[in-house]
Predict the structure.
Amino acid sequence: MKNPIIALALLASVSLWSCSEEKPQTQEFPDEVEIVTPDMRFGFDFNNFDVHEGLVEQDWTLSHLFAKYDVSQAEINEAYLISKDSLDLNYIVPNREYYMLCRIDEDSVNNLQYAIYIKNAVEYFIFDFNDTVAVQAKRKTVTVVEKEISARIRKGGNLSFAIERQIQNPTVTYPLVDEIANIYSWSIDFFHLQVDDKLKIIYEEKTVGGEAIGIGKVKAILFNHKNTDFYAFGYSIDSSYSFYTEKAKTMKSMFLSAPLKYSRMSSGYNLKRYIKLYGRVKPHLGTDYAAPYGTPIWTTADGTISRAGYGRGNGNFVKVKHNKQYSTQYLHMSRIAKGIKVGKYVKQGEIIGYVGSTGSSSGNHVCYRFWKDGKQVDSRKQNFNSAKPMKEVHVPKYLEYVDSVKPLLDKIMFPVLDTISDDTDSTLNEVMDSL
């Protein structure tokens, strides 16, 4: 090398650079900590317990409920007495949910700390077996929201199907249908609705945690039956909530439109009906209402029992005289209600018997017969003096209320008829029968 001094200097600088280079360091990470999201239910974090859950079985008592757990019979008895005397929990109901919150402990099995019994969608009970036995009745927060729907009766359908198609929740449909049928029980025969009858409803829906659990008050309804509008508005007078027409008349009439709660009607008054049982045409002087065996039958108006017994063709029957002009008769009962005998006075809606198929009958139903001035007539074609007006002092405020609500009801649109095929109701029928 021409210049050994330069060479040595370069070598020294390389050596120094190599010595001063930092060695790569390995990055250390702390151990990962699993973050557990709390599972909060009924005021407890279920993650903190060994949870057992199930459904109450038929004929169970509290002893059956706690049998698998480390709870003494004395503690069970004490829990029962507290529940029965202070909290009105006399028994537990089959198919209701329960949760057993046991201590997480490898040395013990089913060491029960808390038990939760679900009474219904709103109420539940907490049993505390820690130090001393304690029982608490709890209620979930219920939210009430105003809802509005409209529905239309289609071929092969009825009121239940029409409402369920719009709501699609039996928990709301069934009580709403019952309420509608009760409100119009004096003016509309729900066993004899027509295709294209339609209605609009404003009502309250109760929810818990965003899930519908039932209904509150029905506020207003427009039911268009046979192209006639029937309005009903709910209104409180002296703490009594009742329904009135848009003209301040009550919905009540002398006669209910049918002798039992809404189900379905199988045949009507017909002077030329072919009777299979007799093999010939025979006048059918009444209206048949098909219903399950044992369905309660009520009198459609106040009156006095004029006949009650058994007839070869009528089976078990009851006849009621309402006044000098009108009488009604109810045939083919499975049995006559207890206490119903000749001379007894009965009130409108009072149960007088139960649906059956006695006498000349081919299936479970009640034949409802109606007399006017001693002659049998079609009850559905009669016009009665009904609808007494509310007390005059309440009318002005009521009409103001109607003026505020009726426009809201009127602007609700009816469902479009051709949006659902003709076979929808038969399909829905199968679905609802399976519920």
User: Anything to note?
Assistant: The chain is about 20% helix and 35% strand.
